[in-house]
UniProtKB/TrEMBL annotation:
Name recorded for this polypeptide: SAM-dependent methyltransferase TRM5/TYW2-type domain-containing protein
Residues covered by the SAM-dependent methyltransferase TRM5/TYW2-type domain: 77-325
InterPro entries hit by this protein: MeTrfase_TRM5/TYW2, SAM-dependent_MTases_sf, TRM5-TYW2-like_MTfase, Trm5a/b_N
CDD domains associated with the record: AdoMet_MTases (cd02440)
Length: 327
């Protein structure tokens, strides 16, 4: 028996579905064995999942056995299909051959390992350097059964936002008009349209992201309940692109380093009483609360949460903000 860890406990009938959902979101502790106890299956996890695609589960403590092959302290990385991406700071602590060797043991079918060296801010695209393998231009990734084509180094995509995409989509109500000002390849819009009969205006300035957004809408069409309209424009022009007389019930502004620079757009696009999901990069959430309150005076912050750890000491937070009805 191993040390005590958190485990997801599910009925054996739903185990395969639960394992796939947990593995897709990198939540399974792969060093430990998944074990069956009676009619239940125990799946070791790094943290409590938000949901498991309508599968009932509970969190328990368990002491699973170890797998025969242990990968001590694997490097932090993102998995996109048959490609792994590590941050440049990983190579400050480990030799390249050690990083590649460990990743190949965990994912034997990898075709390439890239290093993310920086992010170019205009389109938020990563600068990737091939560390090992053969160059890969495009990959297909899955989020809750939705397929997304990603063009590496050409668009912004973060697999660690999968749960956030689903979380925000679950807040949308049927019939809403939603505007995603910085939609990338369609993470939020496709999750929303797959769950709700909503109209989603999905905009991104990056023409490659816009192209892939349209492809991703088409490839997932049979899974969509709502409508996604893809736009390729500066977010400041979106008020002019809204259907005549329409205002949004909900606006998503996932541009953490610059989201407070579009306050006038939020005012013009969002209906009174509507909700703004504003993403902010900060080292101090209380300072960010003051900044948001000063920028959107009269608006009401109804909640905030840490979405991603960005770097040591800083994080990306989502603020849920209601526009006053008298505006």
């Amino acid at each position: 028996m191993g040390e005590k860890v958190l485990c997801v406990e599910v009925e054996k009938t739903y185990a395969e579905k639960a394992i796939k959902a947990l593995r897709r979101n990198n939540l399974i502790l792969e060093d430990y064995l998944i074990e069956r106890v009676g009619d239940k299956v125990l799946i070791p996890v790094a943290k409590t999942p938000e949901s498991l695609e309508d599968t009932f589960f509970r969190i328990v403590e368990c002491a699973p056995g170890y797998k025969k092959k242990l990968f001590a302290n694997p490097p932090s990385y993102d998995s996109l299909g048959e490609v792994a991406i590590v941050r440049s700071r990983v190579l400050e602590q480990r030799a390249p051959e050690e990083v590649v060797g460990t990743l190949l043991k965990i994912h034997p079918r990898l075709k390439a390992v890239y290093v993310k060296e920086e992010t170019v801010e205009e389109y938020r695209v990563p600068v990737l350097k091939l560390l090992w393998g053969t160059p890969v231009e495009e990959v297909i990734v899955k989020e809750y059964g939705l397929s997304f084509k990603v063009r590496l180094g050409k668009v912004y995509y973060n697999p660690r936002l999968t749960e956030e995409h689903r979380r925000v989509a679950s807040l949308v109500r049927n019939g809403e008009v939603v505007v995603d000002l910085f939609s990338g390849i369609g993470g939020f819009p496709l999750h929303i349209a797959s769950l709700k009969t909503a109209l989603v205006l999905a905009n991104d300035l990056n023409p490659t992201a816009h192209e892939l957004l349209m492809e991703n809408v088409k490839s997932n069409m049979k899974k969509l309940k709502g409508i996604v309209i893809a736009l390729n424009d500066d977010a400041r022009n979106i008020p002019e692109r809204l259907p005549r007389g329409e205002l949004a019930d909900r606006v998503i502004a996932n541009l953490p380093k610059a989201s407070l620079g579009f306050v006038e757009v939020y005012n013009q696009v969002l209906a009174p009483g509507g909700v703004l999901h504003l993403y902010v990069l900060t080292r101090d959430v209380y300072t960010a609360i003051d900044d948001v309150s000063n920028a959107l005076q009269g608006w009401r912050i109804i909640g905030h949460r840490l979405v991603l750890e960005y770097s040591p000491g800083s994080g990306i937070y989502r603020f849920d903000i209601v526009k006053p009805k008298h505006v």
